[in-house]
Amino acid sequence: MPQRRTAIKDLRRNRKRHLHNLDITTDLRKTIKKFLTLVNAKNVTEAQSTLKLVYKKLDKAAKRHILHDNTASRRKARFSKLIKTITA
User: Fold this and answer.
1) pLDDT by residue (tens digit) across 3-46?
2) Residue 38 in contact with residue 47, Cβ under 8 Å?
3) Residue 72's domain spans which residues?
4) What is the structure's pLDDT at 11?
C-alpha cells in the first residue's frame, strides 16, 4: 500500500481508470464476437449494421489510447474484408 497522500490518490485514480478501460474493452470484444458470429452465419444485413458499431467502438478505443491507432485500423480493414467475402 502507498504511504503518501498523493500516492493513495493516484492509486484510487488508477483503479477507476482501469475499470473504465476494462468496460470499454469488454464491450468491444462482445461486439466483435457478435459480428463474427453473424459473419459465420452469413447474415449480411445484420453483419453490416454490426460492423458500423464495431468501427465506432474501435475508433473510440483508439481515441482513448486503449488500442493503438494502427491496431484499430488494421482490425477495421480485416473486418471489411470479411464482409466483402460474404457479399461476393
Assistant:
1) 899 999 999 999 999 999 999 999 999 999 999 999 999 999 99
2) yes
3) 5-87
4) 95
The domain spanning residue 67 has which CATH number? Answer: 1.20.58.110
Q: How many Å apart are CA 50 and CA 86, to the nearest integer?
A: 14
Query: Which set of grid coordinates corresponds to residue 15?
Result: 483503479
- Tell me the three state secondary structure of residue 84: helix
Give yes or no for a contact between 74 and 37, defined as CB atoms under 8 angstroms apart: no
- The full DSSP string for 4-57 is SHHHHHHHHHHHHHHHHHHHHHHHHHHHHHHHHHHHHTT-HHHHHHHHHHHHHH
**pLDDT tens digits, 24-33:** 999 999 999 9
* Domain count for the chain: 1
At 61, the pLDDT band (50, 70, 90 cuts) reads very high
